[in-house]
Amino acid sequence: MLGLGAAGVAAAPVLQRALENGLGAVADKDPTGLTGLLPNGGGFRYYSVTTSVPERTAADYRLTVDGMVDRPATYTLAALKALPQTRMVRDVQCVTGWRVPETPFEGVRLSALLDAAGVRPGAKAIRFTCFDGAYSESLTLDQARRPDVLVATRMQDKPLAHSHGGPVRLYVAPMYFYKSAKWLSGITVTDSVRPGYWEELGYDVDAWVGRSNGRDDAPTA
């Protein structure tokens, strides 16, 4: 019995990762969204607003920074990883109610990319687009410059998987998770906030955890 128990403990992380990866792969091709209701050990649910999402490898991934900037740029995955990295451990809170506590994210502060691009006077907001071809999000310029907003390349201390929005996603730690756009491909500086995908359907543009969307969840910490 002790031997079986030890084997179960040793195998649990491998089985959990396999379950999460399997659900993620199925969810990418599930137009019904029913896979998001299935339980998994990591606590995450997998959402996509399209029937499938093309994968991007380290070789073909690109992130553009443009709009009201002096120095538009295009970053490869390697170039993003070569920049100073920030690691933070915060809860992930979905507006549908589930929470994954103490989740590590790592990447480049969005403010660093904006500083490198040289934001022009009159800019007030950021629009984010994604290589799924449908999803979008937005932040005010002040929100985007917060130190807890990342262009993330790692989650749970490993490279960001495709099912979690990899190879690069936005991570807005103090807001509901729909603000943390997956499969990030474009950062455009604009003169006004343009509502994102879910906000066009009624979600709050400002999505502070516990202070928006009619919810009273505890702030992420």
TrEMBL record:
Residues 52-198 form the Oxidoreductase molybdopterin-binding domain. It comes from the Bacteria. It holds the Pfam family Oxidored_molyb. Gene3D superfamilies: Oxidoreductase, molybdopterin-binding domain. SUPFAM superfamilies: Oxidoreductase molybdopterin-binding domain. InterPro entries: OxRdtase_Mopterin-bd_dom, OxRdtase_Mopterin-bd_sf. This is Molybdopterin-dependent oxidoreductase. It comes from Streptomyces silvae.
